[in-house]
Amino acid sequence: MDPSSPRLNRRQLMAAGASVAAAWPLPIRADEIRRYHSDYFSFVGADVQGAVYLAHENNRGQTGDRFFADHWIMMYAQGQGVVPIPDSAHFQFRGTVGGGMRMVSAVNDIDMAVEGLTPILRRQTPGNDYWIGAASATLRWKGRQLAGRVIFEFIARTGYNRFTSDFGANWSNFNGLYLLTEDGRDLYLRYHERVQPGTPRESGMATFDGEGTLSDIAFAIDESRPTPDRTYRWPTRWQAGFSHRGTLWTLHATTDALEEVADWKTGGFAMSVVSGEVVRADGSGRRRFKGWAELLI
Fold first, then answer.
1. Which residues of the chain have pLDDT under 50?
2. Which pTM was predicted?
3. Cα dist. 156→125, 127, 262 in Å?
């Protein structure tokens, strides 16, 4: 990486919004190679001391012969709240997505091992590959060993590099729920008001009662809270109906803690710790869950 090139992490990019692209002093030739990859890990696990939640995004980009990278991380521990993890270059990734990976940061005393991942929900369009998978994971942190699961989100794009291309808002009221059920399975559900080619308004996947994508999704924000001196509101309670492997379910989720990450006046970025349950439509069964809600409003 060219040390003179500007590098902005996720928080800074979110806060700067669309003005980043306009101010970026990096000329781009039409014939230059442009690529962008993003790996997003959402971990939820627990030990005898309680639950720990970890969200980590690792981004890489290429424009011509220039290469870029950044990462963003947030951790929440039951009984402690948000755990400060300084932005640091001291994160290493070992292994492969399909064969199993480790994310290690000695300075932060973090070592997360994730079993092999394969796509469950996938969308591919020319130049774009997006998929979601899930696997068992173990997080070792400050002498604790937490067994849990990771929901993994992968994005690969050609002809585009987030670090040097237009970073105008690509979201509108995005709500992404990354959830771990009480029986150790996964539920992912997202809602997004901006419809783009190849990107539906609602999508999701689950691994309880077998792996599969969700259909017939009806997503609703039941409650929200105001943001001081702003017109937008943070969602705090959700309800969603969906079908999974031929069974109709209803989700009820509520916010346990919310951390505001960035504000760009007309919208913002926050991470929430949430809990709730999914209930069979016929009332014959239910599963409690806990996890993350990613909010891009």
1. 1-25
2. 0.89
3. 11, 8, 24
